[in-house]
Amino acid sequence: MVVISDLAIQGAQMLLVLTLAPLLTGFVRKVKAQLLRRRGASIVQPYRDLLRLLRKEVILADTASWLFRVIPYLIFATTWVAAALVPTFATSLLFSWSADLIAIIALLGSARFFLALAGMDVGTSFGGIGSSREVMIATLAEPAMIMIVFTLALLAGSTQLSNVASFMLSSSVGVRVSLALALVALVMVAIAENARIPIDNPATHLELTMVHEAMVLEYSGRHLAMIELAASLKLLLYISLIGCVFLPWGLALPGAGAAAQVAAVAVYIAKLAAGGFLLALFETTVAKMRVFRVPDFLGAALMLGLLGTLLLFVSRSL
Amino acid sequence: MPTLSDTIATGRVIEAHRSYPRVVVSASLWQTLISRLSQGESTLLGLWGDADAVHMALLDEREGGVIVATALTGEGPIPSVSRVHPPALRLERTLRDLFGIELAELPDPRPWLDHGRWGLRNPLARHAEAAGEPTSYPFLGAEGEGLHQIPVGPVHAGIIEPGHFRFTANGETVVRLEERLGYAHKGVESLMAGASIEQAARLAGRTSGDSTVAYAFAFARAVEAALAIDVPPRALWLRALMAELERLANHFGDIGAICNDAAFALLHAHTSVLRERVLRAAAACFGHRLMMDCIMPGGVAGDLTPEGAGLIRELADIAGKAFPALVELYDNTASLQDRTVGTGILNPTLARQYGCGGYVGRASGRNFDVRRNLAYAPYDSLRFEIPVRSEGDVNARVWIRIQEVQQSLALIEQILDAMPTDGPLRAPVGATGKPAEGLALVEGFRGDVLAWVRLGADGCVDRCHLRDPSWFQWPLLEAAIEGNIVADFPLCNKSFNCSYSGHDL
Predict the structure, then answer these.
(1) What is the span of the domain harbouring residue B99?
(2) Strand pairing of B164-170 and B53-60?
(3) Does the distance separating the beta carbons of A129 and B266 come in below 8 Å?
(4) Mutate which of B150, B155, B492 to test chain A, going by most A C-beta atoms within 10 A?
(5) Residue B265: its chain A contacts at CB < 8 A?
(6) Structural domain span for residue A191
(7) Which helix (H) or strand (E) covers residue B396, if one does?
(8) Chain B hits for A130, Cβ within 8 Å
(9) For residue range B414-431, what is the model confidence (pLDDT) as tens digits?
């Protein structure tokens, strides 16, 4: 019986993240436009864009290999599975017991690996530039992410997000310096991973400054739709992750009733909206940094993560 | 070494050329002028062709005078200027494309504007030939381990003008940038030949849309110089008013666009609002947002009503109040300063050698502005300062624009206060029955626009050359980007904001 209810919740959550992801992207764009005193496109515009892309024909470069055609689906699948592993409104997920935080990082890492390959596959110079920059960012973001996981795992005694969330909800957490460090580091990694300002500009038309966009320049039609949806899912995943680990209040615990589940969904949507608003506000107030400043930025995230881990070895109460 | 006035004494002065002297020079005198150029004693203002001659406009650095020197093709091959003075190179390559004039020892014989797709070769020569198949264009090499090429354009991801940029990079660092332009060639000079003055004035105003006032102004002044026309005073002041409005609109647009290229959209949003206000005021006062066809040879096309003057005063007031806060935002945003300070440094020596005008030159220490150095009415009776900086980076170019906005706002107030309240707006422009030539320079928002015109006895344009300030700025962009990273190119490019259309003719 428990398995069936967990399966239902897992299924509901997978559908929820998929339907909410474009809405979150639309919401962030809308808030940014409003902050610039523009009217901005409707927040459902990303859905329309996806539909439009799905209906359009796919233009493939002559030099594109089978890899180029397969990769959009691979990226979408891995990102979706990764997003399904994060407890959004309920902690009792079926997948939780088979995959943990490290699995999420690995899934996203594979998606990135494939995207970088796709960038180079066609052989245009922009794809190559994008892949090389993306991989540079990845080599710095992933260790920082691992350090954050270590901090959380040392505290909660588990790398499983459901356990971490339960631990965070318990009274034994208290105020901890290491958690604050991990939060700051995670936000920095999230900005870099999602190609947001100041690391990358998702709205740019300047091909020479692109990172993520440069790799997907050659994609069109349904392939592009898959990649765009995966990018939206990834943004949602990171905001959900921050919400689940650092603001776990409102999560439906195992065995909660239907009413509690619905309330948990409402809280989750509120968390997403807050995260999206803060992201838009932050992006409006900073300029993009030079490509070679990115190592400094992510280096700081790595050091914060490392410090968080080390503090826990000094004292369990920090 | 003879000064330019000595040169005039030795050459054959053309009487029909007005405002500045034109002198037909011998081969040896031409050589002397070239060596003066290469030694920095004079600055090249322009170089253009005729069916059987090459003209070169020079600015004397000591005396401040301008002359046009002419070398005739009938007397043996004309020595190339760019062999010792590189700023002339692209002008000479264009000369070869348009007229088929072969200069002796031209260092780079590749075509420039002609991509082999016009269907004609040497369209302005006496006998244009049908063109053959387009040939491939060899780019300059850069050799070394780990170097790779990045071709960018002519079609870009955003809606901008077409131009090709060939980067050779080592990882992210640019080793060499080579531009290839000419994609926006419209054949302005061919269309000018035989056009009536009215038609030609409209055409001149369409050479580069963002500088339409400056071009129409320069063309009108060249025609008026040729025909010795006195322009009514109110028309002169209205022209200056339009020129300052154009400068204001473009500088507002540029300041925002530079910040937008560093992904700082906030400033772009604010300056776009100001730019839009300027354009709407222009539309309300002069009937066209960009003030196209408002300046005509002999005067201006329409008058400014008292309500219009009120609108412009209101605009200057609003912009004057809103702008300081934006300047503060620019100056206090550390992440933005981190991008602009020290990026794309243009060496002052190069700026001086190339006679680079506008904000690009003035940000690299070249203290030159036509409104003061070769003053024309009504600027000779206006008070304004010309900002000059010496850093030469993107930040300096932004600051020159910021200070020029402040000066333009003050100038607009002065012009509205000092302008004669009524009077005629246009002097008659008609054929004089004999050929006449005129040269004029006007300070557009980008820098000095040069217009040279030869009118036939029937009053139609026989030959007209319009030289955009970008001719001397594009090559410097190649120099400024060297050693910077590829991702900083859009920022440098935007801070130069050279014209493609004005350059490609």
Answers:
(1) 4-125
(2) unpaired
(3) no
(4) B150
(5) 32, 36, 203, 284
(6) 2-317
(7) helix B394-418
(8) none
(9) 999 999 888 888 888 887
